[in-house]
Amino acid sequence: MEILDIYNEYRVKTGKTHIRSEKQPDGDYHLVVFVCIFNDVGQMLIQQRQPFKLGWPGFWDITAGGAATAGDTSQQAASRELLEEVGIMMDFSDIMPHFTVNTTHHFCDFYLYRMDVDIDRLQLGYDEVAQVKWASKDEILAMIEDGSFAPYQDGMIELCFSLISRRRTLKYDA
């Protein structure tokens, strides 16, 4: 059972919590993080969600993501999700999200990185990820169109690819 901190519309913690599996009341928000890893040829590392996962089972998705549990900062949640899902250990403690998307019940923080990753050496979280691969922007947009990728807005995917084009590459040795 995941317990989430509740925020108001100004992203201030209210002191209340919410059980993730229950319907969230209108006016309550929780924090979600997404980490997008890109290679030097402009592809994003994407994951296929396990077929037994709740929420988009079997769909392809961005590198890593999930809800921040109670007490987590955005940075702590990003570190945890990246490690749990694809086995990459990264310290986000001094890093701000590259952008945030606000939705009906979520503040969605996005972290974008160029990173030299050998996907054959990644330790995938069995409970989370079936497989990973590299995909171009056009491939991801086509997958959204054909229904095999989680239903992100095309513009959000395009923004991620646009913003990453100026970032330097980090070395990662699994």
Q: Structural class from helices and strands?
A: alpha+beta
User: What share of the residues lie within helices?
Assistant: 10-25%
List the helices and strands in order. EEEEEEHEEEHHE
Largest sheet: 5 strands, mixed
Number of strands: 10
Q: For this structure, what is the CATH homologous superfamily? A: Nucleoside Triphosphate Pyrophosphohydrolase
Radius of gyration: 16 Å
Give unreliable regions as ranges.
none
Average pLDDT rating: 93
CATH architectural category: Alpha-Beta Complex
Q: Please give the alpha-carbon distance between the first and last residues.
A: 30 Å
Strand content: 25-35%
Shape call: globular
Highest CATH level, the class: Alpha Beta
* The CATH topology: Nucleoside Triphosphate Pyrophosphohydrolase
Total domain count: 1
The DSSP helix count reads 3
